[in-house]
């Protein structure tokens, strides 16, 4: 006789807790844990990457001469961040934007803060920071483009 806490599955007796765990896995697999691909988010990230790296090249010159461009870039980054923040299930991308924009970290926000404080930056320093910033943008872009590939499956 089968115990009341067990269920039969394909002719085999499966303990009820295991059956519940299996069902929970199916439910979780059916639910998306990340936002779907969004073309606008992808374009925001790629455009911001290109504009950021181009502006970083100008940091050998005076910050004061490029202050309006810096303000425009910060506004562009803020718009991309706010767009992604408004999308459901997008916490990973939002966290990436937070790190990228943070003036107390070593990516775009920190670079712009340092440029403002020092007035100009060396070409060697800029080249190294561009690699780091480019890689950070690539992570955002790849996460978004990976959503498209996942949606096609």
Can you walk through the features of this model?
With 153 residues, the protein is mainly alpha-helical. It folds into 2 domains: 1-31, no CATH class; 39-152. Helix content is 69%, strand content 5%. The chain has helices spanning 16-30, 39-57, 67-85, 91-101, 108-118, 123-152, and strands at residues 6-9, 12-15. A two-stranded antiparallel sheet has the order 1-2. The protein is elongated and about 75 Å long. The protein starts with 5 loop residues before the first strand and ends with a helix. The model is unreliable at 25-31 (pLDDT under 50).
Task: Spell out the key features of this protein.
153 residues; mainly alpha; 2 domains; two-stranded antiparallel ribbon; elongated
Number of helices: 6
Oligomer: single chain
Overall structural domain count? 2
As a percent range, the share of strand residues is: 5-15%
Order of helices and strands: EEHHHHHH
Uncertain runs are 25-31
Work out the number of β strands.
2
As laid out across the biggest beta sheet, the strand order is 1-2
**Level of helix content?**
55-70%
| Biggest beta sheet summary | 2 strands, antiparallel
By helix and strand content, what is the structural category?
A: mainly alpha
Integer average pLDDT = 85
Shape: elongated
Distance between the termini: 44 Å
Radius of gyration: 23 Å
């Amino acid at each position: 006789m089968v115990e009341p806490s067990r269920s039969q599955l394909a002719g085999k007796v499966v303990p009820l807790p295991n059956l519940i765990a299996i069902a929970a896995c199916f439910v979780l697999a059916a639910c998306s844990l990340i936002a779907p691909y969004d073309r606008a988010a992808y374009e925001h990230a790629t455009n911001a990457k290109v504009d950021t790296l181009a502006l970083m090249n100008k940091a050998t010159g005076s910050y004061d001469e490029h202050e309006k461009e810096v303000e425009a870039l910060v506004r562009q980054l803020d718009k991309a961040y706010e767009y992604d923040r408004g999308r459901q299930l997008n916490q990973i991308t939002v966290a990436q934007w937070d790190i990228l924009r943070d003036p107390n970290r070593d990516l775009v926000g920190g670079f712009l803060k340092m440029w403002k404080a020092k007035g100009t930056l060396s070409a060697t320093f800029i080249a190294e920071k561009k690699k780091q910033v480019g890689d950070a943008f690539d992570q955002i872009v790849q996460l978004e483009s990976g959503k498209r590939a996942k949606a096609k499956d």
